[in-house]
Write a structure and sequence with these properties.
The structure is a homodimer of 343-residue chains. The first copy, chain A, has 343 residues and is an alpha/beta fold. The first copy, chain A, has 3 domains: 15-58, 434 Repressor (Amino-terminal Domain); 72-174 and 306-333, Rossmann fold, CATH 3.40.50.2300; 176-303, Response regulator (Rossmann fold, 3-Layer(aba) Sandwich), CATH 3.40.50. Chain A is built from 13 helices and 12 strands. A 6-stranded parallel beta sheet of chain A has the order 2-1-3-4-5-11, with helices on both faces. The first copy, chain A, has a 6-stranded mixed beta sheet with strand order 7-6-8-9-10-12, with helices on both faces. In chain A, helix 1 (15-22) packs across helix 3 (41-54), helix 8 runs parallel beside helix 9 and helix 10 (236-249) packs across helix 11 (260-273). The longest helix of chain A has 17 residues, at 306-322. Chain A starts with 14 loop residues before the first helix and ends in a 5-residue tail after the last strand. Chains A and B meet through helix 4, helix 5, strand 2, helix 6 and helix 11 of A and helix 4, helix 5, strand 2, helix 6 and helix 11 of B. Strand 2 of chain A pairs antiparallel with strand 2 of chain B. Chain B binds a DNA duplex (30 and 30 nucleotides) through helix 2 and helix 4.
DNA sequence: ACCATGTCTTGGAACGATCCAGAGTTCTAC
DNA sequence: GTAGAACTCTGGATCGTTCCAAGACATGGT
């Protein structure tokens, strides 16, 4: 039995329905949608009318089956970290979804076991559910990118290929060594000279990167870094412990922290010592999290340009999907310093 | 030309490839995947072997085309609010993606113009891209749900149908009047009697709801609420202004805030007055945001059970998709109070 | 009038899965 | 030993779209 009506029935209208209403063939309707220039103006108008009248929209599954493109980008849900100030990834997801929408792509969020960095990718890849992936935690090692490459999957990464300098996939990253540098110079300008660093362990690539910015700024201005650096875990309690130790020993007048989480740890230490943030001591954090934005009197923080990063990634994705052999140069973006009451 | 190899070629293997390798028909392979009990044990084993050998995974587009089910749940990206402590939706997205994954559903994140609450839904609906939606901001009015209902779309909502008490779609919400009540009672237990309320404007349904919990707790314990309530916008600056006013006028010893954002506004006021949070004055917030978790000495906050909410929603979705006429009763969950240094 | 040229349109095949109806096989019971 | 049921398995049709190759039509030059 042929489909009845189309605009009356509950089932969505199909190409054939539109074709019938407009008095043309299916292919002509398809052309009206995908290659309008192939049609004569009056035919196009007639078909367009029928499309509007029926509220026709191509069926995604059918189109996807034929063209082998889903117009979906896979993004693995970053692990949620309670008790920290790390929300950069959430902001990134937001801006990325928005940027992707502008070019007709939607984002497929999927979940993967946090213990296994590869979990979840395989299924989507094999079922051809997504056209490409966005990989985020490249600083944890090249496992994901290496594996994806071996499976010939298309992907871009937010984060440089730390451990594989010759990787060929497009990537976008933020120069956070530079971020630490401008943070430190901002404090120097404000008259500080004993500026401490509270960062992560030596084996953290991200941590060493950021630290180098602080070191560089200090040395450039002829300031000593001796006894002013400490390295610890990325948690509030260890940030507090590190601040306690360094405040007792070296008495710095300002602190640069590798993350807003560590900065919050410092705040806990100050709270206990009844020191006033921004008056008795200056603090600068990283990531410009909601916490940095809202804590009184506001924490000066290095803000990564996530909107720009998202746009660059989408641009790279488009190129990559258009020309499979596309090898983009990596893009390094510069963060800006958002100055608030803490400095 | 027939597909060559399958396990050698770059193209993913198909049902036919598996069938050929296992020496059975396509349908048998399909049954092995979807209805294993229909097969004889030895046949199943043979097919399973072939599937493993080829790394076969059903093509999502093809399956979706035939079964009219995409196994995707649409979720419109909640608007990002900078400069506030509102990150509940991010936590919700996290837990929802995780809960959905357990039942084989993935989440399709899409973007919609913040000015138009309906933007984005239509396209996905018409192209049959998703099986159902999760709607989140029901307190902004019933526009979305009414429209979806009129289009016969399947959906569940996180948030009760505020303006349509007779709505029939499944929903899950958190009883935040109760939240305000336990927050207030917690402060009463701690010995406070002059407990102020800093909330939202009268036309905010959510705001009045929460306020009623405070009023109820106060009256139950024979405490007066006169001059202790203020209503304002959900922003840090208005929270600060409200706190300034009420601290000057009524001198309460504790404050209950309708959101963590307002609580942060209060903190700004305290900071200026050099009052110590948790010692000179107690503050309780709402949502248990990262900010509440990390600010020294920690803000006591009403924590919505988002994990449970996500699970309930996924359960409702499953029922809804299994039986289209399914009309679930709404589910109201109780929040818990996370006690920290601020009280 | 004829054919070459280009534009516009057409019906059939294909993408890879599931649904359906029926064929082949095995098992049970009389 | 055979009918009948129960269990396995098969081939063809189908979902809605795009690709393909070729047909229909108008236009212009000889």
């Amino acid at each position: 039995m042929p489909r009845s009506g189309g605009h009356i029935s509950a089932a969505p209208p199909t190409l054939a329905d539109v074709a019938e209403l407009a008095g043309v063939s299916r292919q002509t309707v398809s052309n009206a949608v995908n290659n309008p220039d192939l049609l004569r103006a009056d035919t196009l108008a007639r078909v367009q009318d029928a499309i509007d009248k029926l509220g026709y929209q191509p069926n995604r599954a059918a189109r996807s089956l034929r063209t082998r493109a889903s117009h979906l980008i896979g993004l693995r849900m970053p692990a949620l970290q309670e008790g920290t100030a790390n929300a950069m990834m959430d902001r990134f997801v937001h801006t990325f979804v928005e940027a992707a929408a502008e070019t007709g792509y939607h984002v497929l969020l999927f979940y993967g076991d946090p213990a296994d960095p590869l979990d979840g990718y395989d299924e989507l890849l094999r079922s051809t559910a997504v056209d490409a992936f966005v990989v985020t935690d490249t600083h944890l090692g090249g496992q994901q990118t290496t594996w994806l490459q071996s499976r010939r999957a298309r992907f871009v990464s937010f984060g440089r290929p730390w451990t594989q300098p010759d990787a060929k996939h497009p990537w976008v990253d933020v120069d956070l060594a530079y971020g630490a540098e401008i943070a430190t110079e901002h404090l120097i300008e404000r008259g500080h000279s004993k500026i401490a660093w509270i960062g992560w362990h030596k084996d953290s690539l991200l941590g060493e990167e950021r630290r180098s910015g602080w070191t560089h700024a200090m040395h450039t201005h002829g300031l000593s870094t001796t006894g002013l650096a400490s390295r610890t875990e990325d948690s509030i309690s260890s940030g507090k412990a590190a601040a306690d130790a360094i405040l007792d020993e070296t008495e710095p007048t300002a602190l640069v922290c590798a993350s807003d989480t560590l900065a919050m740890g410092v705040l806990h230490s100050l709270f206990e010592r009844r020191l006033r943030l921004g008056e008795d001591i200056a603090v600068v954090g990283f990531d410009d999290s909601q916490v940095a934005q809202t804590v009184p009197p506001g924490i000066t923080s290095v803000r990564p340009p996530l909107e720009e990063a998202a746009r660059e990634l989408v641009k790279a994705l488009e190129e990559l999907l258009a020309t499979p052999s596309y090898a983009a140069p990596g893009v390094m973006l510069k963060p800006v310093l958002t100055v608030r009451g803490s400095s």
